[in-house]
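Bumping with the actual sequence this time:
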Amino acid sequence: QVQFVESGGGLVQPGGSLRLSCAASGSGLSTYAIGWYRQAPGKQRELVASISWNGGTTYYADSVKGRFTISRDNTKNTAYLQMTSLKFEDTAVYYCKPLVSGINFGQGTQVTVSS
């Protein structure tokens, strides 16, 4: 079964930037629409961005629109989330997962926005 591993998180100051990566193994990423989710302490997991299998269609939650950019490189079996103008409220564990049922969330990558 395909597995997805997130990386690129870290500690950043408000206004800073990070780029998260989502690498797929197994059968690969190219056939799936991919979503980036996040879960902050004490809150439910939410979808913040998604991208269609060929990159032609994207979605952004209002809270990140204009600051985050989702992209993918199917030749590298990788999806990305470029995050700019980070805010305290972006602090969360970020996960990537195909927009289908039956595939579990991975470990995620921690993003902490702090001064």
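The tokens above came from a reply further down the thread. Residues 16 and 86 are 5 Å apart (CA to CA).
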